[in-house]
Specification:
Blueprint lengths: L17 E3 L2 E3 L9 H57 L3 H20 L2 E4 L12 E6 L8 E6 L1 E4 L2 E4 L2 E5 L1
Parallel strand pairs: 4-8
Antiparallel strand pairs: 1-2, 3-6, 5-8, 6-7
Helix pairs in contact: 1-2
Length: about 170
């Protein structure tokens, strides 16, 4: 049978009375703490600290994802307004009124541009169902699988498709 070693004693900690917010708080700590207890508490403290740092990092990442998702939802709800402005520009006969609506559309487009949104015109590209929404097809020689016309503009935000363009595809 092996002899038991006497427990090693860690440093002695002494705490004095401390005042906190006008109240006296006395921390009671035994005169000595065994090395095993100290190591166990130290390990638990380090694990809790690491867990808390991981929690802060995950929370910050989650906040960024939620912010971006909300931003993209808001932008997506504004995009039809740009379509309406395009329709108004096409319908207005008076040059002065048309320029006024064009300025409003440009202001909208500038705000969206600062947020990373840009128009996506795939005319002439190969049709990709992940990027485009085909609503019609048309016979054209040598244009099979190519996008012939864009019926409704598409928009990208940081290379993520916000709205797929509605297109006519050649057969």
């Amino acid at each position: 049978m092996a002899k038991k070693k006497p427990e090693e004693k860690a440093e002695t900690f002494e705490f004095e009375k401390k005042e906190k917010a006008g109240e006296e708080v006395e921390v009671v700590m035994p005169e000595t703490v065994s090395k095993a207890e100290y190591d166990d508490l130290s390990d638990r403290y380090l694990r809790l600290l690491a867990d808390f740092e991981n929690f802060k990092r995950r929370n910050a990442e989650s906040g960024k994802v939620m912010y971006r998702s909300g931003k993209l939802d808001m932008i997506d709800s504004i995009l039809p307004t740009l379509d309406y402005l395009d329709m108004a520009i096409a319908a207005i006969k008076d040059e002065g009124q048309r320029k006024g609506v064009e300025l409003v559309k440009k202001a909208f487009a500038d705000v969206l541009s600062r947020e990373g949104v840009r128009e996506y015109d795939p005319t002439g590209e190969e049709f990709d169902p992940k990027k485009h929404e085909a609503v019609m097809s048309r016979e054209e020689e040598g244009q099979a699988g190519k996008i012939l016309q864009v019926l409704k503009k598409g928009y990208l935000c940081d290379d993520k498709v916000l709205r797929h363009p509605m297109v006519v595809v050649g057969k």
